[in-house]
């Protein structure tokens, strides 16, 4: 995902709604942000973020998704406002795009660190 407004590259993702199972949220977010359906899903890992300085903890679930079905993105108003576009890159290109970003905002730095960690884990184990 590429936010043209913030110049930020990240992996697709989003929140889990109250009462929603993680896999259901994964399928919903992938469909909304990429237009793809999840044909095969493999668990990659979990990243626990403890942002003590912000009194904030977040759990991030990472999965590898395989698909042959690409449709239309269904972005939220906030995603449209942030000028989110979908780009397809190789694994090495994606790691480079995310890792080489110079980010000022702390939230972006956390996002970058966890996405790069997940991508490198995937690269090591594929």
Largest sheet: 3 strands, antiparallel
Strand content: 15-25%
The rounded Rg comes to 14 Å
Termini Cα gap:
22 Å
Number of domains: 1
> Would you count the extended β strands for me?
5
CATH superfamily: Nucleoside Triphosphate Pyrophosphohydrolase
User: What is the highest CATH level, the class?
Assistant: Alpha Beta
Structural category is: alpha+beta
CATH topology: Nucleoside Triphosphate Pyrophosphohydrolase
Tell me which CATH architecture applies here. Answer: Alpha-Beta Complex
List low-pLDDT spans: none
Strand order across the largest sheet: 2-1-5
| Element-by-element helix/strand order | EEHEEHEHH
Shape: globular
Report the helical percentage: 25-40%
Mean model confidence by pLDDT = 92
Helix run count: 4
